[in-house]
Amino acid sequence: RRRAGGGGPTPPLPALGAAGMAAEDEAELSLLECRVCFERYGPGGQRRPRNLPCGHVLCRGCVAALGGPEGRRLECPFCRRACGPAETSDCLPLLQLLEVLGPAGGSVPSALGKSGGAAGPAPAGLGLRLSLGGWGSLVNPTGVAACRRSGRLAVAHDGKKRIHVFGLSGACLQRFGERGDAGNDIKYPLDVTVTWDGHVVVTDGGDRSVKAFDFEGRGVLAVREGFCLPWGLDATPESEVILTDAEAGALYRLTADFKRGQLKKCQMIRSQLVSPRGVAVSQTSGAVVVIEHLKAQGPNSSSTRVKIFSAEMDLISQMDSFGLNLVFPSKICTTAVAFDREGRVIVTDVCSQAVICLGKPEEFPVFNPLISHGLSYPIGLTYTANNSLVVLDSGDHSIKIYSST
Hints:
mainly beta; Herpes Virus-1; Neuraminidase; 2 domains; 4-stranded antiparallel sheet; 29 strands; 10% helix; 39% strand; RING-type E3 ubiquitin transferase; ligase activity; ligase; zinc; Znf_RING_CS
């Protein structure tokens, strides 16, 4: 089941001559126009840009016209996927871009503070300190988490012992979580987190359960009922667990006394998400960020969306692959997410094989590459107590730890 890596690093943008500038202007004009009526989008009224469920964007007037006078189901004029007018939504990336451009309608590159669409400056000082695992030690790893008290790392993978625990020096301290069908055996781990009170919690896609262990490998709790496909999870400072259910399209908060092995409460806190997988909780503000995997529109296409919620689960901001392409000229497919110590949203991107900072929720999204070389297929992300960045690279079955140099 080894996954193939994404495309190589994005080549540098060539210098733009007169023809290149003309092509850039044409692309910008196309971006800001409805491709049905060819009218320029506006912030309100009939020209307000609307997303169709398929991902294509039309102005509000064209959505109404295609739906007919009775507001019946309409077909996307580009891919022919049917939907109802109520299934459309405001295209926030374009609305934000129009707001930046202002009434005068400045150019896209200048409004974004870029020349020719290049990415913003990368923060300096992150260097690879340690690489752990590798083929034979880890087999198709799927999740990584750090214990914020001890600094130990827990990794979920497809080996005979599903969970490996590494110490600060890189030595493997424990292996537990037998592959099998009995008791607390783990069939197929999808993600892992470590609670503040020192328990390793795993989502098991094999029997659609959530299982908890202490650091000695003793199974303390298994929650097998109520989930369709539990996937991503992260722990709060109160040792609660926030987890996604990819098939149910839901987000849950799980409260338990892990020492006694007692489940107290499992509450759905958000529904109507689209295949949510990766999730992270800010340890300072309590904000929650989720990665949704949207339905592909072709055999080789994929699209993701990053959603940020407040601690009270109010939607703060969201951005999909299309929107991120407005600030970065390469396709982006986010797979893992974390908050750093300052509360910034950090994601992995398997298309550019990179780790990217998208900024704090209130400034989301900025675009600052943190790591752009040396990764094959980054699918896991966490921070240690000393603020080292840990990346799980499924392409070469390793854990890569970066720290300030």
